[in-house]
């Protein structure tokens, strides 16, 4: 995998969050302030533009640029969280021109660690961590067992979506939704929902399908 792979991934993420903008915003309207769809769409559109303007960065540098752009364009919690995630992921690859599936896991694990550091959320707090952590764990486990990257990502997508759905009965303990207390129960977390889209886009980038 190389720089073009990340450009493809990010382009797919931008298209996917835009296609799901209304749904993400509705989910956020129920337990937040109704801006998650527009936040993610605006942020990833800006990232696509920044990557288009970039000339020949390594994969790691490209992710760092993507993260910096997200932080600069998204005011909500998701901007700094995903922004720092992509920057941390990019730093894992240093100046390597290409990387393998095992390193993709390390990129995602660093992204997850960064989100958890900054947001202090754990699985069960009803946040994006509920989708990302099981996805990263599934990817790691399947690759360690010798599965091809595409198959391992199938499991990651499944685990992420299961984690996303599992946020419905939870009471939020982090972020804006936590202000609602028990009233946050019964709604799917918007950030976990967009995170599941981000993981699905990664799988699509690996198998090269729309
Ligand atoms: P805001 O809440 O500032 O309006 P967004 O609506 O863009 O930002 O994003 C909300 C999502 O961000 C939530 O659904 C949740 O998944 C995620 N989130 C909020 N706070 C945290 C946190 N401390 N740690 C991890 N994720 C968080
Ligand atoms: Mg919001």
Percent range of helical residues:
55-70%
**Termini Cα gap:** 18 Å
Largest sheet: none
Instruction: Kindly estimate the percentage of residues that lie in beta strands according to DSSP.
Output: under 5%
Helix count, DSSP H or I runs of 4 or more residues = 9
What is the structural class?
Answer: mainly alpha
Record field, number of beta strands: 0
Catalogue the ligands: adenosine-5'-diphosphate, magnesium ion
- Secondary-structure element pattern, one letter each: HHHHHHHHH
Shape: globular
Average pLDDT works out at: 96
Low-confidence stretches: none
Please describe what this structure looks like:
By secondary structure, this protein is mostly helical. Helix content is 70%, strand content 0%. It has nine helices and no strands. Helix 1 (3-19) packs antiparallel against helix 3 (36-53). The two termini are 18 Å apart. The relative contact order is 0.14. The mean pLDDT is 96. The site of adenosine-5'-diphosphate has 23 residues, from helix 3, helix 5, helix 6 and helix 9.
């Amino acid at each position: 995998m190389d720089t073009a792979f990340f450009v493809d991934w990010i382009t797919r993420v931008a298209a996917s969050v835009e296609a799901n903008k209304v749904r993400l915003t509705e989910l956020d309207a129920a337990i937040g302030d109704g801006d998650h769809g527009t936040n993610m769409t605006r942020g990833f559109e800006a990232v696509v533009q920044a990557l288009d303007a970039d000339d020949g960065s390594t994969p790691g540098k490209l992710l760092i640029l993507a993260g910096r752009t997200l932080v600069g364009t998204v005011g909500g919690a998701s901007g700094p969280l995903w922004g720092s995630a992509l920057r941390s992921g990019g730093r894992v690859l240093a100046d390597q021109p290409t990387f393998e599936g095992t390193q993709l896991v390390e990129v995602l694990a660093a992204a997850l660690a960064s989100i958890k550091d900054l947001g202090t959320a754990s699985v069960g707090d009803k946040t994006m961590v509920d989708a990302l952590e099981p996805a990263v764990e599934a990817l790691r486990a399947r690759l360690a067992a010798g599965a091809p990257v595409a198959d391992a990502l199938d499991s990651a997508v499944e685990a992420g979506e299961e984690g996303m759905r599992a946020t419905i009965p939870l009471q939020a303990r982090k972020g804006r939704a936590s202000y609602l207390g028990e009233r946050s129960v019964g709604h799917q977390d918007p950030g976990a929902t967009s995170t599941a889209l981000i993981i699905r886009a990664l799988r699509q980038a690996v198998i090269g399908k729309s």
